[in-house]
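Input chain follows. Return C-alpha cells only.
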Amino acid sequence: MAKVGKKYAEAVKLIEADKFYEPVEAIELVKKTATANFDETIEIAFNLNVDPKYADQQVRGAVVLPHGTGKTKRVLVFAKGDKIKEAEDAGADVVGSEELVAKVQGGWSDFDVVVATPDMMGQVGRLGKVLGPKGLMPNPKVGTVTPDVARAVSEIKAGKIEYRTDKAGIISCAIGKASFDDEKLLDNYRTIVDTIIKAKPVAAKGQYIKSVTLASTMGPGVPLNVFKLSAVSKEQ
C-alpha cells in the first residue's frame, strides 16, 4: 500500500465512508481538505457509462464557467490579415501565421489554448503530431476553429474550458480554486454538471453518469450523490 502524507491522511478522516454528498456539503468539505501551502485547484471528475472508442458515444465540447477557473490561460491564435489585429485586440497572447506554425513545429510550446481561423487549418494541420497528444489541436466542435477569433479569445479568457472523455470514459475538469467562495464554486459546478447531462450521447444506454467526485489538487476525492446532480436547481 502506498504511503500518504500526514495532511492527506487527516483529510481522508473528514470524509465519511460510504456516504454520497450533496453539492453544497461536498464543496465545503473539499475546501476543508485543501490544506496545501498554495491555492489548490478544485476539480470535478465524471465517470460516464459510455464507450469512447465509438464515435457516437464520445462526449466532448466546451463551456464558459461563470466565474472562470482562477487560472489565466495563454492563448495562441493562428490567423492572417485583419484577423491578426482582431485576435490581438481581444487579448490573445501570441498571434501569427506561417512563421508561428514553424515556431511551434520547432518545439516552442509556451501556450495553453490554440485557436485558428478556418483558412489557416491547412497549415496548422501539419502540427497534428505536436498539438494532438497534448489535446491542443484546434477543433470546430469546441469553437477553436472559427472565423470569429475575437469571440473565441474573449470566451477563453473569461473562463471557457474544454471537456472530453478519456479512454476510460472519464471527464475531469477544473471548476475553480480553493480560495473561491462557496457560491462561485457552486455556480461553476452547476454549469458543468448541466452541460455534461445535456451532452449525453443518444447511443449511451442505462445509467449515463456512474459516479462524480470532487477533489482539490492534493486532497482526497469527495463522492457526490449522482441521483441529485441537477445543475438547474438552486436549492442545491
